[in-house]
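The aim of this short unit is practical: by the end, you should be able to scan a pair of folded records and say something sensible about each. We start with the first protein, listed as its amino acid sequence and then its structure tokens.
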Amino acid sequence: MGQGQDKNRWKRIPDVRTPRALPEDPKPGTERGRRPCCAAEPLLSEEVLSVDPRFIGRIFSVEVQEVQLPDGRRTTREVVRHPGGSCVVALDETGSIYLVHQYRVGTGGPSREIPAGKLDPSEDALTCARRELAEETGLTADRWDLLIRFYPSPGYTDEVIHIYLARELMKGPASPDEGEYISCERIHLETALDDIRNGILTDGKTCLGILLTALTIGLLR
């Protein structure tokens, strides 16, 4: 929406300090949310017979599995193994969020995204989210809520992404990783919603995080 619109529209939004219960990240061993409720159906299972590692890279690895289908036939599956990642919707007291601009090889050009990164070995999701937010934007936050934990593309990868809502922000110096060239944009949440509607913001985790944030604070119904 244009800058000339009614500034009082944000009176609809409750105080961002108001507590709100959100789902917690599952503890190791429980894996709440990893398996769908239909997982017990026999026709929705496959037996892995063998695993052939084909590529081991810095960020992900690729393996080919031979599997047996419920009807006894055999086939192969190509699986991308990924450590998972965290991303952050950082919401300040004015109702603005922070986006990072960086080049993405998958699109062959720059992308606008919420701060994000992959989990380091033995790192929990919240620690990763705090680290990435500070490195990419210089921001730290006193309040953190998990918005969702989801599989971006379960047809070929086991990657799990955690999206956090960070509030009560404090500004400090950014410190991107070596070889990471980024710039930071501050944008009103309602403008970001318009960018999603208009196809200007297209990164999946970013769109989902913005929409869930708008739902959480009562901007969307």
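Turning to the second protein, read its sequence before its tokens, just as you did above.
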Amino acid sequence: MTRSLRSLLARGKATLASLLCCGSLSVSALDTATVVSSALSPDCLEYRVVGICFWLYCTYGGCSVRTSVKVRHYVPDAVVSSYANTGENPWSEVRAMSSPSGEAQGGGDGTTNHDNENNLARFKNADVIGHPGSLVFSAFASGFGYSCSGAGTAFMPYLLSTLDTVAWRYNLPELAYPEALTPGLREVGSRAGVNLWGHVYPRGGFLHQSDDYQAAAVVAQRAGDVVTRKGQPHVYWPLLADAKDGYWPAGELMESDATTGKWQELTPTLSNACAVFPHSDTKVQAQRGDYAWALWRPYACCERKGQVFLGSVDFM
């Protein structure tokens, strides 16, 4: 590790410690430095040794089988912003990426601000942008042992809802999908548990939800659902890595399933922990309806020790 990287990592740890000393902190404006520091979270990392990989190593003198440790941990692939006013992404440095356009101008919701109102539609824009903390995170994760790379590229726009107008603002064609028409299918939360936050389909910006935080979380889940799949009827770039010998990347994101991905709140409060939606943690309502989470995804890998990968064995 270079001296400059060690210095950057040390400053990042100090910043995170000061911000998260009490578990979470109100964040009025989200900037890149805060996003980078948030990647230094052992809870979200969840580093584990899960098995052994076997490699065939050959030289002129013959061949032998070598082993390496198989590890699994989460990687902050992207920052997912869910916000009411078009062009006002809470992450200030990337705000210009999703400026209002001819087809995407307004925002907000249909509320009249009555406390008992729960039948009017809310609207949220959503941006999925590559997490900028990959360098600091890699150094941080390497402190636990061998680490895996993620699929995200820093500052890469994987989905900008202002460019996805037909799908995001008109729900076409997903308005007619079975997932959008069938109660109980692809939902964030549970009807039986009286904790239903919303439907994943149609994966657009509108939904009926009286709680603004829950509405933003559902829209973030929708955006994450789109970018972690290929061939979707949206304007986006897939946030996926290809599997290879000794490397098992994250697959499709599924709601309420931490084994496919989990969320770290960045604003309006900065958290040092990750969770899935729905959760029972304290939910702070953003004054301007703008929220952002880091999307952490699970990866497994092992260090290459030979020319041919023979397979792996996972521990119980």
